[in-house]
Amino acid sequence: MSTLHIKNAQIIWPGSKWHRKTADVIIENGITKAIGQNLNQQADEVITGKKLILTPGWFDLHVSFNDPGNEHKEDITSGSQAAQHGGFTDVLLMPNTQPAIDSKSVVNYVKGKAQLSETNIHIAGAASEGLLGEDITEVYDMKDAGIVALTDHKKAIQNADLLRRVLFYAKKSGMPVMSFASDKSLNKNGQMNEGKMSTSLGLKGMPSLSEEIQLKRDIDLAKYCDSPIHFSSISSKESVEIIRSAKDAGIPVTCDVSYMNLALTDKDLEDFDTNLKLNPPLRTEADRQALIEGLKDGTIDAISTDHTPQNIEEKAREFDNAAFGMSSLETLYPVYNTFLKDDISIELFVDKLAVESRQLIGLPTPQLEEGKPARVTILDSSKKVKIDKNFLKSKSKNNYWLGSELKGVVIRTINGK
Amino acid sequence: MSNLSVDHLLGIKGLSREDIELIFTTADNFKDVINRPIKKVPSLRDITIANLFFENSTRTKLSFELAEKRLSADVVNFSASGSSLKKGETLIDTVNNILAMKVDMVVMRHPNPGAAVFLSRNVNSRIVNAGDGAHEHPTQALLDTYSIREKYGDVEGKKVVIVGDIVHSRVALSNIFALQKLGATVKVCGPQTLIPKYIEDLGVEVELDLRKALEWCDIANMLRIQLERQDIKYFPSIREYTMTYGVDAELLNSLSKEVTIMHPGPINRGVEITSDVADSDHAIILNQVENGVAIRMAVLYLLAEKIAR
What we know:
Chain B: Pathway: Pyrimidine metabolism; UMP biosynthesis via de novo pathway; (S)-dihydroorotate from bicarbonate: step 2/3. The complex is a heterodimer of chains A (417) and B (309). With 417 residues, chain A is of the alpha/beta class. Chain A folds into 2 domains: 3-53 and 370-415, Urease, subunit C, domain 1 (Roll), CATH 2.30.40; 57-359, TIM Barrel (Alpha-Beta Barrel). Chain A has 13 helices and 17 strands. In chain A, strand 13, helix 8 (237-248) and strand 14 (253-258) form a beta-alpha-beta unit. In chain A, helix 4 (160-171) packs across helix 7 and helix 8 (237-248) packs parallel to helix 10. Chain B is an alpha/beta fold and 309 residues long. A 5-stranded parallel β-sheet of chain B has the order 7-6-5-8-9, with helices on both faces. Chain B is globular. The two termini of chain B are 17 Å apart. Chain A binds chain B through residues 189, 191, 194-196, 198-205, 207, 271-272, 313, 316-321, and chain B through 13, 90-92, 110-115, 117-118, 121-122, 132-136, 170, 173, 196-199, 201-202, 231.
C-alpha cells in the first residue's frame, strides 16, 4: 500500500469537471482515491510545491529508442525512464531500429522489452520493408502483434506509387499512416534551414520547399486514396498554410510539430552547435511564429518531442559529419515553461500533449475520477532546474539546453494501471 | 600598439573594423620587411606553429609558411586530405596529438564549414582559419581588401563585384563581410545556379549580366571555377561559362570605365579571365599574392601577442 497526497495543485485537465480548479488529489497504488479541496488524509508521501500543476499523463507521438540495434544510444529501458522523467506516460515508438520494426518478430521483441517499462510503449510499424521505400510490409500481421501506426519515419517515402499503395492497403486497418514530408533531392547534403543563416555559415541549406512540395504531393495522394494521412514534425510557415487549406477543404489531414521548432530558430546555429543539427531543421522566426499560430487555430494537432538520442561521437565533430537529432524528451516542460508559456497557454499545451495527440491514434484521454487508474503528470512551474548530464536519464546527452538553468520541472509522472 | 578583439582568426564575421584596420597597419610594416634584403624579423622565434591542411592547398600553405618563417617561428606541416580521418581519428584527436608536442598556434584548412570554430572550442591553442569549406577564408579576404586599399588608398565607397561560383566559395563570403565592414558596396555575378538564393539577405545585390556588373563596379574579383567542389553540374560546360562569365580584353576595353581585375588564384587561364587580362595593367593578381604574405605575418604576429609568454 502506498498513498500519495498531492496538495494544492492547479488542475489542467480538458474535459474534466476539475479543469482549471485547484484541488488536492489522493492516489493510492496508482488509483485515484479522492479529489477535493483541503483533503485531510494520512499519506505515505505528500507532494507540495509553490505552483503545482496536475495534468493528464502526456503522450509523445514521436520517439526513437534505437532498440534493437543501437542500444548504446538508448534502449527501451533508458528511453522509458527518460519519457517518465519528461512527463510522459505514453510514447509512440518509431520503427527506425536495426533491424527496422517491419515484421511481427521485431514487434514482439519490442513488446517483450516494453512489458518491463513504466511507460506505455505504443509501436509504429514500418510502412516499407527495412524502411527502404520499396515494398510494403505485412501491415495486418504487425497490427495483430500490436502496432498502432505506420510510418517510414525520416526515411521519407520518395516514390509516390509506394505511398499510394501504403495508403490503399492499410486503409482497412484504421491505423494512421504517418509521413515525414521531405523531398530528398532538394535536401541533398543539407545541414540546416536554407536561408540567411545557412548562407552566412557556408552550410548547405535544406529549403523548406523540400517539405512543402512533398506535403502537397502527399495530400493529393491522400485525397486520391480517400485515406487519412498524418504529417510528423512540420516546420515551415508555408506547411502550416498548406495543411490549413487541406483541412478547410475537408481532406483528412493531421500533423504535429516538434517543440524545438517552437522554441528555437536557425539563428541559434550561429556557433555551429551540432546539438541543433535537426531534421526537420530549425527555421526562421516567421516560421516559428506561424507554427505557434497553427497550434492555436487547430491546424497543428499535437506537440511532439522528436526524441533522437545520439552518442557523443556522433555529435562532437564537424557540423557536416554530425548526426541529426536531439535527446529531447526530458526538457520539453522546462523549455515550454521558460520560453513558450506566454505564447502557448498551459491549457492548449496540455491539450496538444495529452488529449489530441492520443486522438490521433484513437486512444482516449486518461480520466481524473475517483476509483479510476491515475495517469497523471505533476509539474511545478516555479521551481528552477539546472539541466546537466545527471539531470538527463536518457543514455544520450545531445541536448542543446545542457548547462542551462530553466524554470519549470516535472515533479512526478504516475502511470496507474 | 593596440590588440585584436579576438583570440583566434576564425572568420571576418567576428572581426571589428578596427581589428581589420589594425591588421592592415601591421601588414604595412611587414610589407616593408619582406621587401628588405634581410626579409626576416625575430618576433615569433619562441612560437611553434602547426599548419594543418586537411584539404589540398599549394599557395595558401606556401604563403602561410613563408609568413611564419619570416617571423622566425618554428613550423611543422601536416597534410592529410582525409587520411587520418579515413583511419577513423577525429579532428580533435588529431589536433590534440599535435598540440601535445607543444605547439602554440594552429593554421588549419578543412573541408567542413565551421571546422575552425569547432576546433577553437575544443582545443587549447590559437586557431587561424585558412579556409573551412564554403564558410570563410579570412586571410584571403584581408589580403584582397588590403590590395584594394593599396591601389585606391581606401576601401570605403568602392564598388566591388564578385564573379563566379558564389555558392561554394569561402572567398566570396569572407570578401563580402570584409568589404562591407570597410564600407564598400558588393554585388555578386554568375550563373544563378551558383548564387545562394538568400545572398541578398547579406546586403549583397545580384547582377546576372556580366557586362552590366562590370559597368557598375570599380573592382571585379574573378573567382576560380572549382570543378572539384561540384558533385553535380551547376552549368553545362566550361565553354558556355566562359562565353557568359569570362572576361577578356575586348570586353574590358569596351567598357566606359577602368575596372581593376582581381583573382584569388590559381587562375584557369582562358576560363575566368584570358591571359591578356591576367597579364595586363588592369590586374593586381600578383600584388594580391605578395600582400598575402604580409597580411598573414600581421595576423600571426597579432595573435601571438595574445599568448602569455
